[in-house]
């Protein structure tokens, strides 16, 4: 469970845990680079109609997804759950409105940023004593 005292090691633990899961590399990719983005697919126009219809684009539908695309979308959901399960309630409440694992990851990092400095200061004091 994340707290101010263990943030330095927490990201590494979460990433290692994510990698150990099925589709682990996809989960980590979702955390680090963002979610799967559906492609835009061209729909052929119909130039032979009395009023020609030009080519158009539409967002990839569920039926048009490849097996890899489906796995990637599942990995996006798993990435969010992986991060959220390791958060205390106060941090969870602060990031619950974010929609992607990358957004949650970045927000937690911002919230805990002071932890890195505090940890370094503690180590420096111990070293100097």
Overall 3D form: elongated
> What is the C-alpha radius of gyration, as a whole number of Å?
22 Å
Total beta strands = 2
Q: What's the mean pLDDT score? A: 88
User: Order of strands in the sheet with the most strands?
Assistant: 1-2
Estimated share of beta-strand residues: 5-15%
Number of helical elements: 5
Uncertain segments: none
Spell out the helices and strands N to C: HHEEHHH
Helix-strand category: mainly alpha
What portion of residues is helical? 55-70%
How far apart are the termini? 30 Å
Biggest pleated sheet: 2 strands, antiparallel
Please describe the topology of this protein:
Layout: H1 10-20, H2 24-33, E1 40-43, E2 56-59, H3 67-85, H4 89-95, H5 101-128
Antiparallel strand pairs: 1-2
């Amino acid at each position: 469970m994340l707290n101010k005292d263990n943030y330095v090691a927490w990201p590494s633990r979460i990433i290692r845990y994510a990698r150990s899961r099925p589709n682990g590399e996809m989960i980590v990719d979702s955390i680090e680079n963002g979610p799967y983005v559906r492609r835009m697919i061209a729909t052929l126009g119909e130039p032979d109609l009395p009023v020609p219809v030009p080519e158009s684009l539409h967002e990839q539908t569920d039926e048009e997804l490849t097996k890899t695309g489906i796995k990637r979308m599942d990995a996006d959901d798993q990435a969010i759950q992986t991060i959220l399960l390791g958060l205390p309630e106060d941090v969870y409440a602060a990031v619950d409105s974010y929609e992607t694992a990358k957004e949650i990851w970045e927000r937690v990092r911002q919230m805990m940023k002071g932890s890195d400095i505090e940890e370094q200061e503690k180590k420096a004091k111990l070293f100097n004593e």
